[in-house]
Design goal:
Elements: H1 2-35, E1 41-53, E2 63-71, E3 77-81, E4 84-92, E5 97-106, E6 109-111, E7 116-124, H2 130-136, E8 144-158, E9 161-162, E10 166-176, E11 179-181, E12 188-189, H3 193-218
Antiparallel strand pairs: 1-2, 1-11, 1-12, 2-7, 3-6, 3-8, 4-5, 4-8, 8-9, 8-10
Helix pairs in contact: 1-3
The structure holds 2-acetamido-2-deoxy-beta-D-glucopyranose (6 copies).
């Protein structure tokens, strides 16, 4: 009778042990894959409003052209971008309000890991007359400001699977000098306080999913 007990204990412990090793290995792999997930980085690399160039006299007064940069910083994940909506606003300093002046939709696309993409586009503005803006602008001081809002959803490709969609709503302020160009040389990064919240909830959800998985395997 005691011998049989011993025999029973041995394989039980072994199964428990391999189960533990297997699940902790899997947990580590999933943790590595999910925790290292970083959102794509968006920035405005160039921004040109021809009518605001003090040298130019006869230009298309409604055109705004820009270069949007999208970077996937993940080492092991591709990113599926849904159609990406960009909305442009003009800033009225006198009453601190933004007025919509343009929009464009960039078609969906896939981006491999560690890849950078550029979308160079131009739009026709509406609503606010940029010609009037130029007339009002005092010489020398370049305080014309625009805002660009971005709205899209992305899915990450992890090995052969795709994650669910993650909404991204970000914005950036772009100041333009008296030559009609972006007043700083560096790219301007889109940001949002809300995006940090999204990141955190994703983290918590992934952690809970891992816990459930872990105990699921342990109890088998
Ligand atoms: C505008 O004209 C001035 C001189 O008239 C010149 O120095 C400057 O480079 C010009 N800027 C652009 C953007 O053409
Ligand atoms: C400005 O460009 C748009 C196309 O981007 C064109 O439809 C429009 O006629 C142009 N306006 C002028 C005044 O050239
Ligand atoms: C702010 O002022 C501009 C003109 O100065 C006007 O067109 C715009 O409607 C104003 N916006 C608000 C929210 O009052
Ligand atoms: C986007 O811009 C077009 C003109 O280019 C305009 O007709 C349309 O209403 C705009 N869409 C939104 C959502 O503002
Ligand atoms: C701005 O500069 C132009 C010449 O470049 C001059 O004719 C005009 O009077 C100036 N305007 C102001 C408000 O200083
Ligand atoms: C953009 O400018 C407005 C007005 O100055 C400011 O309230 C807002 O916080 C700025 N946004 C960012 C992302 O800097």
């Amino acid at each position: 009778m005691p011998r049989r007990n011993n025999e029973n204990e041995q394989p039980n412990c072994c199964r428990c042990c391999t189960g533990f090793l297997f699940s902790s290995g899997l947990t580590a792999l999933l943790l590595w894959l999910t925790l290292k997930s970083s959102s794509p980085k968006y920035s405005i690399e160039s921004f040109y409003v021809p009518v605001l160039n003090k040298n130019s006299t006869s230009v298309n007064s409604t055109t705004i052209s820009f270069d949007l940069r999208l970077k996937n910083e993940n080492r092991n994940k591709g990113i599926y971008y849904d159609a990406l909506d960009l909305t442009f606003f003009y800033y009225f300093p006198e009453n601190s309000s933004f007025s919509e002046i343009g929009n464009i939709t960039i078609p969906e696309f896939y981006q491999g890991h560690l890849k950078t993409a550029h979308r160079v586009e131009s739009i026709r503005s509406y609503g606010v007359s940029l010609k009037d803006v130029k007339m009002k602008a005092p010489n020398g001081s370049s305080t014309t400001m625009f805002r660009v809002d971005l709205d899209t959803e992305v899915r990450y490709k992890i090995m052969l699977s795709r994650t669910k969609r993650h909404r991204m709503r970000l914005g950036v302020n772009v100041t333009v000098n008296d030559e009609g160009a972006k007043s700083v040389d560096r790219g301007l990064r889109f940001s949002s306080a809300a995006s940090h919240f999204n990141g955190l909830t994703t983290l918590v959800r992934n952690f809970l999913a891992l816990l459930i998985l872990y105990f699921g395997i342990i109890s088998v």
